[in-house]
């Protein structure tokens, strides 16, 4: 990966970009935001200690109606059913995963059924 070719395209290489909290492992160049792929290419490493910790359940601080609206706004035709599966108290994580996968499979099967029906109706 040669920086010479990028410089010929007009890319700027500031020594210490303000957008990254990183510690350079060696003197390196940074590309402009539009050309930046990964800070590790240029010897920068993120400080992971300051990152927010992951949670086990990403839906724990949201109610069922808000989750349903989120799914519906993203174009999910089965938003209500999907939200009910996620908020089912009597299911463990494994059961919820299986239920969501089954819902996805049913949707995919219906799509294939529709496409197959459409294909045959065009041939006739």
Write up this protein.
By secondary structure, the protein is mainly alpha-helical. The chain has two domains: 3-50, no CATH class; 64-123, no CATH class. The chain is 45% helix and 5% strand. The chain is built from four helices and two strands; from the N terminus they run αββααα. It has helices at 3-8, 64-73, 79-87, 93-123; strands spanning 22-24, 44-46. The protein has a two-stranded antiparallel ribbon with strand order 1-2. α2 runs antiparallel to α3. The termini are far apart. The relative contact order is 0.07. The mean pLDDT is 69.
Give descriptors for this structure.
two-stranded antiparallel ribbon; 2 strands; single chain; 124 residues; mainly alpha; 4 helices
Structural class: mainly alpha
Whole-number tally of structural domains: 2
β-strand percent reads under 5%
SS field, number of helical segments: 4
> What is the tally of beta strands?
2
Distance between the termini: 56 Å
Strand order of the largest sheet: 1-2
What oligomeric state do the depicted chains represent?
single chain
Listing every helix as H and every strand as E from the N terminus to the C terminus, the arrangement reads: HEEHHH
- What number is the mean pLDDT? 69
Cα shape: extended
Which sheet architecture does the biggest sheet show?
Answer: 2 strands, antiparallel
Amount of helix: 40-55%
| Rg, Å, rounded | 24 Å
Residue runs with pLDDT of under 50 for 5 or more positions: none
